[in-house]
Automatic annotation (TrEMBL):
Record GO terms (molecular function): anaphase-promoting complex binding; ubiquitin ligase activator activity
Keyword entries, A-Z: Cell cycle, Cell division, Mitosis, Repeat, WD repeat
Organism: Gossypium arboreum
Designated name of the protein: Anaphase-promoting complex subunit cdc20
Gene3D superfamilies recorded: YVTN repeat-like/Quinoprotein amine dehydrogenase (2.130.10.10)
TM stretches of this protein: none
Database matches in InterPro entries: Cdc20/Fizzy (IPR033010), WD40/YVTN_repeat-like_dom_sf (IPR015943), WD40_repeat_dom_sf (IPR036322)
Alphabetical list of SUPFAM superfamilies matching this protein: WD40 repeat-like (SSF50978)
GO cellular component: anaphase-promoting complex
GO biological process assignments: anaphase-promoting complex-dependent catabolic process; cell division; positive regulation of anaphase-promoting complex-dependent catabolic process
Domain of life: Eukaryota
Length: 110
């Protein structure tokens, strides 16, 4: 069912549902982010995944070991290619999503 609201259509039910069983329920964590290339980056446990909205495919970016984790936040760069992964030890890992490669680690970040 669709409703009209100030000349915009508003869906009354979800178009898709993403099952994220291991998503931590913590108000202070930022564990998913929608990128400019229509890809969602999401953290489940200590693993960061991609979900591509165009074909509903998923792929793994990286798993953070217990010594460096847990992941506390993820964020796409505006270029839609690079991702910042915030870790519990005040570190941020910068990842290249195309090559699944870590570019650098910034330490002492908040």
């Amino acid at each position: 069912m669709l409703m009209h609201c100030d000349h915009h259509l508003v869906l009354q039910s979800p178009e898709r549902t993403l099952d994220a069983l291991d998503l931590m329920d913590d108000f202070y964590l930022n564990l998913l982010d929608w990128g400019s290339s229509n890809v969602l980056v999401i953290t489940l446990g200590n693993t960061v995944y991609f979900w591509d909205a165009s074909d509903s495919s998923t792929s793994k970016l990286v798993t953070i070991d217990d010594d460096n984790g847990p992941v506390t936040s993820v964020s796409w760069a505006l270029d839609g290619r690079h991702i910042a992964i915030g870790l519990n030890k005040s570190e941020v890992q910068l990842q290249d999503s195309a090559s699944n490669r870590q570019l650098r680690t910034l330490r002492g970040c908040h």
